[in-house]
Amino acid sequence: MFNSLTEKLQGLFSSIAGKKVLTEDNISEAVKTIRLALLDADVNFGVVSQFVNSVKEKALGESVLKSIAPQQQFIKIVHDELVALMGSEEAPLELNKKPSVLMLCGLQGSGKTTTCAKLAAYIGKQEKGKKILLAACDLQRPAAVEQLKKLGRDIGVDVFSIDGDAKPVSVAKKALEKAQVEKYDVLIVDTAGRLHLDEALMKELSEMASLLTPSEVLFVANAAVGQDVVRVATEFDKGVGITGTILTMLDGSARAGAAISIRYITKKPLKFEGVGEKIGDFQLFNPKSMADRILGMGDVINLVRKAEEHFNEEEALKMEQKLRKATFTYADYLQQMGMVKKMGSLKSLLKMLPGMGALGDLDFSDKQFVQVEAIVLSMTPEEREEKVEMSHSRRKRIAKGSGVALEEVNRMVKGFTRMKQLFKNMPDLKKMKGFPGFSGLEDIKNQMKGNKWR
Ligand SMILES: Nc1nc2c(ncn2[C@@H]2O[C@H](COP(=O)(O)OP(=O)(O)OP(=O)(O)O)[C@@H](O)[C@H]2O)c(=O)[nH]1
Ligand SMILES: [Mg+2]
Predict the structure, then answer these.
(1) Going by DSSP bridges, is the β-strand pair 100-105/186-191 parallel, antiparallel, or unpaired?
(2) Which of 203-212, 224-233, 367-376 has the lowest mean pLDDT?
(3) pLDDT of the residue at 440
(4) Is the distance from the beta carbon of residue 394 to the nearest atom of ligand 1 less than 6 Å?
(5) Topology (CATH) of 304-429
(6) Ligand number with the minimum distance to the CA of 254
(7) How far apart are the CA of 193 and the centre of ligand 2, in A?
(8) What are the sequence ranges of the domains in the chain?
């Protein structure tokens, strides 16, 4: 995500690292580089000006100039300012009414229909037992209703639609009636998109909003578009009154423009982010996590979240300790690979750790995983615990026993060694208190505990 911006900022930070003290001159120089990098990433001009002025002012503050670690202080300032621009805190959904109506709107192809389903699945997972209804109010595109129905079937959520010549507003009305009568908790309304902003669409949406009195009107913003989408968001806000934004397509060629500018310009919180085509590729928008990712510091917040989702606390803690101490053996390796596989690809997970963006090909296919399993199972207990040297003759015996080629055994031993090395060098999150992005794993967990929308 945002590769070019991240590279430029990291380049800047490492050039600052070479300096013992920061002077006014090199702060001005640094700020100039940030300005260009942000403009290049398509961040709104006004936002860039406000951002760099604020960074400059803080960096010129005495503590930074006199600091013994000016680089870290400077990074912290940039990080904090980014977090502030994107809203500081997570912004949970308003779901206090019965039914709470969530209306999604945005330009054509921005991801509205997909996001309706992602949102439904997300709410369903977080708040078990909530009754959710999707309403197909996009009658612009013939296939839109079918698309939503299919998504609804896939995730097991009811979809309301009317066949034939209905008007979107009357479909919305009927959907609301159904939701009220049948006591749904949440009604999520999919609406039509247009290629460009147009008055007819705004009128339709605004009529729909008056009728539905939605708890949330969520603007769905395609992050690949850059800052142009910010202008569109402003228009939707004027026309319909949005309560927040959902960023989509952050997995692709997303530009930082939308993510960084949209909250500041619209003054409405960023609520969620779509990071892929699959239903599960959807997470709460966390300004700190986004700032971490923009600055190339991994994504510890979402990593912890993912881990919590898939492991129980005890398992997770055990794994963390073993990884941390690099005392894990081949047996742990196998067990952990299995656990990690539940969370997604190893590569995608390692990318979430700070300083591990460039990992090359360290990854596992399912086939390789089966091979690793066979290899480990063919090891003697001493071998598994790393109590003996993995000699050539041992490797040959293991290859024979597990039915894989000797090269595979060699590769696995190499991969294991490399992985151990990697984790040994992994920054200790607990010691990173005060460092931008890492208030320590415990703090992150505590911070998330109070928020049921994690
Ligand atoms: N890579 C990626 N693809 C996404 C994401 N969200 C949606 N898509 C894909 O983008 C395409 C358009 O998504 P839709 O949900 O149909 O968009 P829409 O806004 O409803 O489009 P219209 O109804 O035509 O206005 C689909 O192929 C989705 O699978 C995302 O976060 N990442
Ligand atoms: Mg759609």
Answers:
(1) parallel
(2) 367-376
(3) 45
(4) no
(5) 434 Repressor (Amino-terminal Domain) (1.10.260)
(6) 1
(7) 7
(8) 3-85, 100-296, 304-429
Instruction: Output the DSSP codes for 143-194.
Output: THHHHHHHHHHHHT-EEE---SS--HHHHHHHHHHHHHHTT-SEEEEEE---
Instruction: Indicate whether residue 320 lines ligand 1 (CB < 6 A).
Output: no
190 phi and psi, to 5 degrees? -90, 135
CATH number of 3-85: 1.20.120.140
CB atoms within 10 A of CB 373: 14
Q: What is the pLDDT of residues 130-178, one digit of tens each?
A: 999 999 999 988 799 999 999 999 999 999 999 887 899 999 999 999 9
Q: Tell whether ligand 1 has an atom less than 6 A from the beta carbon of residue 315.
A: no
215-257 pLDDT per residue, tens: 999 999 999 888 889 999 999 999 999 999 999 999 877 788 8
Tell me whether residue 292 is exposed, middle or buried, using C-beta atoms within 10 angstroms of its C-beta: 0 to 12, 13 to 18, 19 or more: buried
Q: Whose CA is nearest to atom 13 of ligand 1?
A: 111
Residue 108 has pLDDT above 80, yes or no: yes
Which is more confidently placed, 56 or 306? 56
Residues around ligand 2, an ion, CB closer than 5 A: 112-113, 144
User: Could you tell me if the CB of 371 is within 6 A of ligand 1?
Assistant: no
Q: Which residues pair with 190 in a beta bridge?
A: 136
User: Is the Cβ atom of 276 under 6 angstroms away from ligand 1?
Assistant: yes
**Which atom of ligand 1 lies nearest, measured to the CA of 118?**
6
Provide CATH code, domain 100-296.
3.40.50.300
Nearest listed ligand to the Cα of residue 273 = 1
pLDDT tens track for 141-153: 879 999 999 999 9
